[in-house]
Amino acid sequence: EAGVAQSPRYKIIEKRQSVAFWCNPISGHATLYWYQQILGQGPKLLIQFQNNGVVDDSQLPKDRFSAERLKGVDSTLKIQPAKLEDSAVYLCASSRTRSGGYNEQFFGPGTRLTVL
Amino acid sequence: GNSVTQMEGPVTLSEEAFLTINCTYTATGYPSLFWYVQYPGEGLQLLLKATKADDKGSNKGFEATYRKETTSFHLEKGSVQVSDSAVYFCALKRGAQKLVFGQGTRLTINP
User: Fold this and answer.
1) Using the beta-carbon criterion (under 8 Å), do B93 and A102 form an inter-chain contact?
2) Which helix (H) or strand (E) holds A64?
3) Which of A1, A19, A27, A110 could lock onto A89 through a cystine, CB 3.0 to 4.6 A?
4) Per-residue DSSP letter, B28
5) pLDDT per residue as tens digits for the range A25-43
6) Neighbours of B94 (CB within 10 A)
7) B28-41, pLDDT tens digit by residue?
């Protein structure tokens, strides 16, 4: 079974530029998550999708961050315009369902963003 | 709100040493507790979990016991190997709420 795929693996941009990350979850996984992992900190959930609907985006800075999950499969996360403090690793994860019990989240390798 | 605190890193040990990485949590109710591991260049992987008090999670020689009285979930391994070098994250989840991670502990094992 193929894992969660993310691209690009690395991205360097100037502040105020825009950037987009792509995620392809494990086939059949209904739930998709985007996390931000700042150096020296644990991952922080930005947004959670169930199929193509948003379940939780309470920690997404909506003035500059946006995400979509077309057709309930692939997802893109966009930052526009980027700030220096957006430098982080952006992790995508997927799981089978959003039921109350725990369903293991499988993580992709992440995209390391550097904003200069 | 829910939170997780891990021991400060980095931690450096010699091969075959005993490992403990401390983790304590703050949460209402009865969360599930997890340890994730992140090897260099890879995504996070679930290492072990425990869903109720006194449960012991174990995997790959690692163990952690859910201690409600001390709100702790310390990770232990009796004899570490160079291949255990990674960043370890303690995390909790309560019901349908989001996963909450600690800040991570970088472990380096020297031959």
Assistant:
1) yes
2) none
3) A110
4) S
5) 999 999 999 999 999 899 9
6) 16
7) 888 999 999 999 88
The position carrying tokens 């200069």 is A116
Q: Does B29 touch chain A if contact means CB atoms closer than 8 Å?
A: no
Cβ pair A100:B96 closer than 8 A: yes
Integer CA distances (angstroms), A112 to A13, A89, A108, B6, B94, in order: 11, 4, 12, 24, 29
DSSP secondary-structure letter at B42?
A: S
The verdict on B12 touching A (C-beta cutoff 8 Å) is no
Q: Are A107 and A25 in contact (CB under 8 A)?
A: no
- Which residues in chain B touch residue A100, judged by CB atoms under 8 angstroms apart? 95-96
Ramachandran class of A40: left when φ > 0, alpha when ψ lies in -120 to 50, beta otherwise:
left
CB-CB neighbors (< 8 A) of A10 in chain B: none
